[in-house]
Amino acid sequence: MFLVGDFLYLLKNYPRSSENQLLKVAELTKEYLKLVLDNDNILRGEYEIITQSRNRGEIFNDYLFCVKCKIRKSINKFEQIGNHKTFSKICSYCAEDNLAKFNKIVRNGD
Q1: What is the mean pLDDT of the chain?
Q2: Residue 88: which of 76, 99, 97 has the closest Cα?
Q3: Which residues share a beta bridge with 48?
Q4: Residues contacting 72, CB < 8 A, separation 6+
Q5: Domain boundary assignment for the chain
Q6: How far is Cα 47 from Cα 40, in angstroms, rounded to an integer?
Q7: Model pTM greater than 0.70?
Q8: Which of 19, 27, 12 lies closest to 61 in space, CA to CA?
Q9: What is d(CA 48, CA 37) in angstroms, rounded to the nearest whole number?
Q10: What local confidence, expressed as pLDDT, does residue 93 receive?
Q11: Per-residue pLDDT tens digits for 28-44
Q12: In 25-39, which positions are buried (b, 16+ CB within 10 angstroms) versus exposed (e)?
């Protein structure tokens, strides 16, 4: 069951990866996962919570993916939008780079 625990960790912490990809990484088959989940209520409950949260797009970990530089970075590198757990899609480094490019364009346009 340690392998299933590894799979659940991956499922929770790598939301952009598909379940099939993570099963391959954990070296599990769907049939084995189903067998373990059918016989272990604790793991099944954890699996259901994780899959439901993944479907809703909730954030589990402290890392987000920057759509500009394509790198996973610490969540503190992203600006929080409003009071909800909504974060910017680009990290603060990329945002500063965008702002610098914009300011350069504005200065050259004057």
Answers
A1: 86
A2: 76
A3: none
A4: 63, 64, 65, 66
A5: 2-56, 63-109
A6: 11
A7: no
A8: 12
A9: 10
A10: 93
A11: 999 999 999 999 999 99
A12: ebebeeeebeebbee
DSSP codes of every residue in the chain: -HHHHHHHHHHHH-TTS-HHHHHHHTT--HHHHHHHHHH-HHHHHHHHHHHHHHHHT---SSEEE-TTT--EEEGGGS-EETTTTEE-SS-HHHHHHHHHHHHHHHHHH-
Is residue 95 within 8 Å of residue 104, measured between CB atoms? no
Q: Which two tokens stand for residue 11?
A: 């499922």
- Catalogue the long-range contacts made by 102-109 (C-beta closer than 8 Å, 24 or more residues apart): none
Token pair 């590894």 is found at 6
Taking alpha carbons only, the member of 24, 61, 53, 69 closest to residue 33 is 24
Ramachandran sector of residue 17 (left: φ over 0; alpha: ψ -120 to 50; beta: rest): beta
